[in-house]
Write a structure and sequence with these properties.
Two copies of one chain form a homodimer. By secondary structure, the first copy, chain A, is of the alpha/beta class. Chain A has six helices and 13 strands. Chain A has one domain: Stationary-phase Survival Protein Sure Homolog, Chain: A (3-Layer(aba) Sandwich), CATH 3.40.1210.10. In chain A, helix 1 crosses helix 4 and helix 2 runs parallel beside helix 3. Chains A and B meet through helix 2, helix 3, strand 8, strand 11 and strand 13 of A and helix 2, helix 3, strand 8, strand 11 and strand 13 of B.
Chain lengths: 254, 254
């Protein structure tokens, strides 16, 4: 069998330590092409660039992979890679390793996960990886063996269409990580608290801040698994239909 | 019963004809506060503003509602409204009327729908309305009675937590609209085709273009309902867990 073609992207930008670690892992598995944002794109969700233009350029970075720096969002990167950069459809798309958790509700704000979802919409197997440590100098070594294992298992066990994986890694040493748990998305949210300031011209402005509120203590929730020292894997879908509410809604609009 | 407090937002910007029509409809139902972007935010998905600041200002526009123009994305608008602008939690949040369809997979790219989803995350009833006509001068009068009906029904019949409504309106005259259908999100996607150009300095750049590919002919898909002249309502959830794949995934990671 020929080597798999692997597309790598992220939302922290092409020079972030998290993506460089992910590239080093997949370089041992297949032929690697990186198409990642040229600037930080955290919290960009599933944004695409409609009203302005996009560009990309090849960089010369260490390693056997090819690196392309793209001006857009993470989802733009996946679209450009598939339409303009890759020689053929990739066998798998991996996104991350994100600097910071994308567990529970964070999946909908995350550029890292939205890139994986966009690959899923294109019918490709895709995984987003995130480490529960926001720092630029976070230690990504600890989870290397687990990440390799999850990518190999995903290549060997094809996922159904319409599903991608959201993998979150606790900020623990390798020997402290208890294993891998398949989980559901925890019921959690951010409680907003905007930080109000006044600019030199007397006008008020705001920084988005807040605290994370986990309302879900169930055993199989990703937040619970992470708190207990496990790596969480949530299968994520992009058919957002709430099928379980259709009957009741039909009775209202009969 | 006191009048309901209604928050209105959108992604086309606070001056767009679509939101002004929606405001005129809800002004007859309750007390209305508008917090909407000060610039077009189409395709911004669930993006939030983390690395720069936000501001808002009150405008003096015709009508009994209060209008606040906000510098952020649609999701930022909902967050700022709830934390900094509204006197109390609103009874319902309505987003739109979007200039252009947000049916099928468009729900994940849409700023209009992401604003509704953000309200849902906050535990509020929320509806996104979209008209299948991208034009600024689209005719929003045709669906006025249907929109009023859907908002009143949603106030009277509380939705379960975790669900918001995605309402799409075909571009037809009022007498041509066949009614309202509860639907699932059609299986559809955009086929990318970037338009490549060369700038005056010899560097290539790209415009995102493509065509819509509906792969779903099922009777209860939103695209089918719209094609048959119905208004589609899809109940949308933001627990993205693919529960139906958890067993198989567990067998891989047992």
């Amino acid at each position: 069998m020929s080597k798999p073609l692997i597309l790598v992207t992220n939302d922290d930008g092409i020079t972030a330590p998290g993506i460089r670690k992910l590239i080093s892992i997949v370089n041992e598995i297949g032929d690697v092409i990186v198409v990642a944002p040229n600037s930080p794109q955290s919290g960009k969700g599933h944004a695409i660039t409609i009203n302005s233009t996009l560009s990309f350029e090849e960089l010369n970075l260490d390693g056997p992979q090819k690196d392309f720096s793209c001006s857009g969002t993470p989802v733009d990167c996946v679209k450009m890679a598939l339409d303009k950069i890759l020689p053929r459809r990739p066998d798998i798309v991996v996104s991350g390793i994100n600097h910071g958790s994308n567990s529970s509700i964070n999946v909908i704000y995350s550029g890292t996960m939205s890139a994986a979802v966009e690959a899923g919409v294109e019918g490709l197997p895709a995984i987003g990886f995130s480490l529960s440590d926001l720092k630029w100098e976070a230690d990504f070594d600890q989870a290397e063996d687990f990440i390799r294992d999850i990518i190999l298992k995903t290549i060997e066990n094809p996922m159904p269409k319409g599903v991608v994986l959201n993998v979150n890694i606790p900020n623990l040493k390798k020997e402290e990580i208890k294993g891998i748990k398949v989980c559901k998305q925890a019921n959690a949210k951010w409680e907003e608290s905007f930080d109000e300031r006044t600019n030199p011209h007397g006008k008020k402005y705001y920084w988005l801040t807040g605290y994370f509120n986990n309302m879900d203590e169930s055993e199989d929730a990703d937040e619970t698994a992470l708190a207990n020292g496990f790596i969480s894997i949530v299968p994520v879908k992009f058919d957002l239909t709430a099928y379980e509410y259709m009957n009741e809604l039909n009775s209202i609009y009969h």
